[in-house]
UniProtKB/TrEMBL annotation:
It comes from Podospora appendiculata. InterPro entries: AtsK-like, TauD-like_sf, TauD/TfdA-like. One of its GO terms (cellular component) is cytoplasm. Keywords: Dioxygenase, Iron, Metal-binding, Oxidoreductase. This is TfdA family taurine dioxygenase. It comes from the Eukaryota. Coiled coil: none annotated. The keyword Transit peptide does not apply. GO terms for molecular function: 2-oxoglutarate-dependent dioxygenase activity; metal ion binding. Belongs to the TfdA dioxygenase family.
Length: 361
C-alpha cells in the first residue's frame, strides 16, 4: 500500500502560513534558540474558552510548527479530556490539513491491555501512556525480552508519531496525570536543524531518498490477542494492516515550507529504500550521530503532574527516557494525536536557516 502513496515530488509548494498577534499576550521563553517554547503561566482552558479561540489556536499551531514543541508547565487540571481532543483536532484543521482527516485511533485500541484514564473512562482517540501497560501491549515485539538483559540502544527510540501510517500524525498533545519524583523526561529534536547541519552534497543525497516505515508488531499483537485491528485510523488512507508506507527521508513542512529530516532514524523506520544494507546502516548511524553531536537542537521536558506538551510531528523527533524503573512511582499520561498530510518533499522548498537568513552552521 505504501507505493500507492509515494511522496508527491511534483506537488506545488503550499503558501507558508504566518502567525498573527492573537497569543502575543502570553508569557513565554524559548527553550533554546533552535527548538521549543515554554508557556509557564498559560491556561489552555482559557484559550479554549476565549471568544477568539480559533485565532489563538491557529497562531499557537503555527508557532508550534516553527518552534517544534510547546511546553505548558502550569497544571492544566481544568481542561477536560474532550477539550484536549478538540484542541488537538483544531490545531490541524486551522492550519490546512486534509478535511477528511481527524484524530488518530491507535491500531491496538481493541487490545484488553489498554488502560482506562484516571476517571475510569476509555476513549478511542486517547492513548494512555503507561510503562507497565505498554510492556504487555508490545510483548510480541521482536527482541522485547532481550531488552531487559542488556543496555538498550536508546537511539532507536527517536520517532515521529504514527510514522507507520500512510497518513501520519501532525500534532500530538500529551498531558501528564501522574509522575515519579524524577525520571521519565521526554526529549524533542529539531528535524529542521538536523537537515541544516548536513553538508550540501549530503542534503542532495537524502532529499532523494524514501524510507519504508513498517510496524509488524500490530499484526502479531492482534493475532496473539485474537482481536481485530482498528480501522480506519483518523484518515481514509489508514486502514486494515497497511503498516509499511514509504515516506520521504526529508519532507517539506506543509505549514512553514521548510525542509525537515523526517524518516531517517528510529523505531518505525525499517529501511532506507534503494540503497545497499550497509549504506542504510551508514545513513541511520549518521543521523543518530547528528542528534548526539548537536545537543543544542534538543529540548527536554521534565514532567510534573498536570503539565502538557504539544508538538508537531512533521518537524520533530521525540524520545522518552526509560529510567522510571529506578524510582518509586508511575508515569501516566493521556495523549491525543491528529492526522495530517501525506508527507511529501517539494524541491522548491528551503531549509529553515536559508529561509530565515541564519548562518549556514
Amino acid at each position: 500500500m505504501g507505493s500507492t502513496h509515494e511522496p508527491r515530488a511534483n506537488k506545488l509548494m503550499r503558501e507558508p502560513l504566518k502567525a498573527g498577534t492573537a497569543i502575543d499576550y502570553l508569557e513565554y521563553r524559548d527553550v533554546t534558540p533552535l527548538i521549543g517554547r515554554e508557556y509557564p503561566t498559560a491556561s489552555l482552558k482559557k484559550i479554549y474558552d476565549a471568544p477568539d479561540r480559533d485565532a489563538q489556536l491557529r497562531d499557537l499551531a503555527i508557532t508550534i510548527c516553527e518552534r517544534g514543541v510547546a511546553f505548558f508547565h502550569a497544571p492544566q487540571d481544568d481542561l477536560s479530556v474532550d477539550e484536549q481532543k478538540d484542541i488537538t483536532d483544531l490545531l490541524g484543521k486551522l492550519t490546512g490539513r486534509p478535511k477528511e482527516n481527524g484524530l488518530h485511533v491507535h491500531p491496538l485500541w481493541n487490545d484488553p491491555n489498554n488502560l482506562a484514564m484516571a476517571d475510569g473512562r476509555v476513549d478511542e482517540n486517547i492513548y494512555v501512556i503507561n510503562a507497565d501497560a505498554q510492556k504487555k501491549l508490545y510483548a510480541t515485539m521482536p527482541n522485547h525480552q532481550d531488552m531487559d538483559r542488556q543496555p538498550p540502544d536508546l537511539a532507536r527510540e527517536w520517532h515521529s508519531d504514527s510514522l507507520y501510517e500512510n497518513c501520519p500524525s501532525d500534532f500530538s498533545f500529551l498531558r501528564m496525570q501522574e509522575t515519579p519524583p524524577s525520571g521519565g523526561d521526554t526529549l524533542w529534536c529539531s528535524g529542521y536543524e538536523l537537515y541544516d547541519r548536513m553538508s550540501p552534497p549530503f542534503k542532495k543525497l537524502v532529499e532523494g531518498l524514501t524510507a519504508t516505515c513498517a510496524q509488524p508488531v500490530f499484526k502479531t499483537a492482534c493475532a496473539a490477542g485474537g482481536y481485530p485491528v482498528t480501522s480506519p485510523r483518523g484518515s481514509p488512507l489508514n486502514v486494515d494492516f497497511e503498516f509499511s508506507p514509504s515516506h520521504p527521508v526529508v519532507r517539506t513542512h506543509p505549514v512553514t515550507g521548510w525542509k525537515s529530516l523526517y524518516a531517517g532514524i528510529g523505531i518505525h523506520v525499517t529501511k532506507i529504500n534503494g540503497v545497499y544494507s550497509y549504506e542504510d546502516t551508514l545513513i541511520r548511524d549518521y543521523v543518530a550521530r547528528l542528534i548526539t553531536r548537536n545537543h543544542d537542537g534538543i529540548a527536554r521536558m521534565h514532567w510534573t503532574r498536570g503539565a502538557c506538551a504539544i508538538w508537531c510531528n512533521a518537524c520533530t523527533l521525540h524520545a522518552a527516557t526509560p529510567d522510571t524503573h529506578l524510582v518509586e512511582g508511575n508515569r501516566v499520561g493521556v495523549r491525543a494525536t491528529g492526522i495530517g498530510d501525506v508527507p511529501y518533499f517539494d524541491p522548491a522548498s528551503t531549509g529553515r536557516r536559508e529561509a530565515l537568513g541564519w548562518p549556514s552552521y
